[in-house]
Task: structure prediction
Amino acid sequence: MSIDRGLADRAEHIRRYREQLLTWDKYLPETQRRLKNRVFDTFDALIRHRGGHGLVAGLRLLDLGAADGALVQVCLERGVQASGLDISDGLDFEHDPLPLADGTVDVVTAVSLIEHLHSPANMLRETLRVLRPGGWFLLVTPNWRYARAEFYDDPTHVHPYSDVSLDRVLRGYGFADPYVVPWIVDRKSTRLNSSHLGISYAVFCLKKK
Result:
């Protein structure tokens, strides 16, 4: 099977599943907007907790697996220069280069993306390439240790990760200081720690200098 045919088949598979999701109250546009505002606040708090300035106005952010673009829209409304890419744009995260120049992005986000890829190699290499030195990579994915009973309820999931395996993958591709925390939106920064990983977790990394 050619790469083009494989991408088309995956895109169709995801499209059909998304059509089902859109019938759920969670995926109504107004619900997604509220959720993505909370995601923005959580990302901002986590970056500050790790010694950064947060998602301040003027930063350039790239959202991988942007879906309906709700997070991108929230970022734009808050002054962050955001754009998004998804398989619906004809992009194959497993094979295609990201359409951005080297070192031009301050923050890359990938919420519920890596578990949909058979191999993360290309996506991680391209993320590292487009990030500026010291830029942030914020990744959210289910934690297999806690989510294995329901992980494959999503028929587009293909590759589970634990906190250990993901840490090793990220370090292997050149990301510095992976930091794993529970994925609980609106979590107070003073309570952020890695003592309990929860059902999903977030990994926050700095690109190497």
